[in-house]
Design goal:
It is a single chain. The chain has 452 residues and is of the alpha+beta class. Helices cover 46% and strands 23% of the residues. It has helices spanning 2-16, 25-46, 57-63, 219-228, 269-291, 296-320, 330-388, 393-407, 417-420, 423-451, and strands at 86-101, 106-118, 134-138, 148-149, 152-156, 162-166, 170-182, 194-202, 211-215, 236-250, 253-266. The strands form 2 sheets. Strands 1, 2, 3, 5, 6, 7 and 9 form a 7-stranded mixed sheet that branches. Helix 1 packs antiparallel against helix 2, helix 5 runs antiparallel to helix 6 (296-320) and helix 5 (269-291) runs parallel beside helix 7. The radius of gyration is 50 Å and the shape is rod-shaped. The two termini are 87 Å apart.
């Protein structure tokens, strides 16, 4: 309209202006050129070319009325149809398993959560804004899904408080999370265990009639991307990811929940080298001492020292495992069994030592008793002979031991200590071989429990 008015004013002024050009051909040519130029400008503007002053992102924000003081659009659910809920699509990618604390039954994950939703109130025509079809705005500019992680007990809030908005009302927000979650750790087969922890994402402010949360991709695709971007290579290995979508019933309605089930496997090399192999080595050393040729007193000293070393490893294990559990882990049974077998070896050695001392004491008592009896009999015989043959008393006293030695007739003994010594080796063999057989059975049971 302004161009047309300008053409009319310029034509009128040129046609009425005094001078030599008012009725000449030159005036007509100038008028025609100006008219053609202004007609081209008018046609060019009518063709749809956008003016320069709206070719900025700021103009898109002004058009969407985001810069105003009213922030209701940032808090109100963008729902146009009351019978149709807003659908939020989620994409999950696990980046790292930072720590697993068995004592506290917690696990710390670092993951990225991507959310997509539609807002029909935030649309524009890209042709009106120099083909600008996407802008990046803060999270508080428009409504965004309030996310709640059910198992979360601690963690850091995301520091990327921005989202992208497309011209058709599509919103996209990608946020990294470092969250510490509660997880029921099953440590029965520690350190050869596999754990599964749940990460449930929900929005308990809006029921399913207003907001529905769904997964964007399949678990296989999320698993593949997570393994390709996995940052840590520590104690735990990320093995599987499964997803469950369900409705949680609360007092005031149903709410949409998406649960990511993260499966991870422990790498047991460090625990094998630090706990299991040293315990097995100490037990083999205990068996070697038990079957060794040392004296029983030395065996007891070695065995007690080995038990003290095994107790130190048990203290280390106690600092790792949780204080309560439904049933004791296999490694606890392994440590307790080896400890009891070592105690049994000490008791066997004590029994053998007691039997040995008892045999020696009995042999000493019987020897002293035999010597007393033999002395009394000798003195009685010599007294009888002295009364019958007093003249030959001195000669017989000198010749009696020689005759006894020449005839080879030692005093009669009713008990021989050599017969009693045969019981000790038999008892030792029975105890040692029974202990060895019991050890084999115990280690076989532990191996089956760990491998099953």
């Amino acid at each position: 309209m302004m161009q047309r008015a300008f053409i009319a004013i310029l034509t009128f002024s040129l046609g009425t202006a005094p001078g030599p050009f008012s009725s000449g051909t030159a005036l007509i040519q100038v008028k025609n050129c100006l008219i053609l130029f202004l007609i081209q400008v008018e046609l060019f503007s009518l063709a749809g070319a956008a003016p320069r002053y709206i070719c900025t992102y700021y103009d898109v924000v002004e058009y969407l009325n985001i810069s105003s003081h009213s922030k209701l659009h940032a808090h109100i659910l963008p729902k146009t149809d009351l019978n149709k809920p807003v659908e939020v699509k989620m994409d999950f990618m696990l980046m790292a398993i930072l720590s697993v604390v068995e004592k506290l039954q917690t696990v710390t994950f670092y993951f990225v959560l991507n959310l997509e939703w539609k807002n029909t109130f935030a649309t524009w025509n890209p042709q009106d804004f120099c083909n600008i079809s996407k802008v990046i705005l803060p999270m508080d500019s428009y409504w965004s899904p309030p996310i709640f992680i059910v198992e979360r007990v601690n963690g850091q809030n995301p520091n990327l408080d921005y989202m992208s908005i497309t011209h058709n009302g599509g919103f996209n927000s990608t946020q990294p999370f470092q969250a510490t979650l509660t997880c029921s750790l099953m440590i029965f087969k520690f350190p050869f265990d596999t754990q599964t922890c749940n990460l449930s994402v929900a929005s308990f402010l809006y029921p399913v009639t207003d907001l529905v949360m769904k997964t964007k991709r399949t678990p296989a695709d999320m698993m593949r991307d997570s393994q390709s971007y996995f940052l840590t290579d520590g104690e735990w290995k990320f093995t599987n990811l499964s997803i469950i979508e369900y409705m949680e019933d609360l007092d005031d309605g149903q709410f949409s929940v998406v649960t990511y089930m993260i499966s991870m496997e422990r790498r047991p090399t460090l625990y094998i080298l630090n706990l299991i192999l040293p315990t097995c080595a100490l037990y083999l050393l205990d068996m070697a001492v038990l079957f060794g040729p040392s004296s029983l007193e030395e065996k007891i000293n070695f065995q007690i020292a080995i038990i003290l070393g095994s107790s130190m490893l048990a203290v280390i294990l106690n600092n790792i495992l949780p204080t309560s559990s439904n049933r004791p882990p296999v490694i606890v049974v392994f440590f307790l069994g080896t400890f009891l077998l070592m105690i049994m070896a000490v008791l066997d050695t004590f029994l053998l030592l007691h039997q040995q001392h008892k045999s020696l004491y009995l042999d000493k008592v019987l020897r002293s008793f035999q010597q007393d009896v033999h002395t009394k009999l000798t003195m009685r015989t010599m007294a009888n002979q002295s009364t019958k043959h007093p003249a030959k008393d001195s000669a017989q006293q000198q010749n009696l031991p020689k005759k006894a030695q020449e005839k080879g007739q030692p005093p009669k003994r009713h008990w021989q200590p050599q017969e009693q010594d045969l019981f000790l080796p038999v008892l030792e063999k029975v105890l040692l071989y029974s202990h060895f057989f019991l050890s084999l059975v115990f280690f076989a049971i532990i191996s089956v429990k760990w491998s099953s």
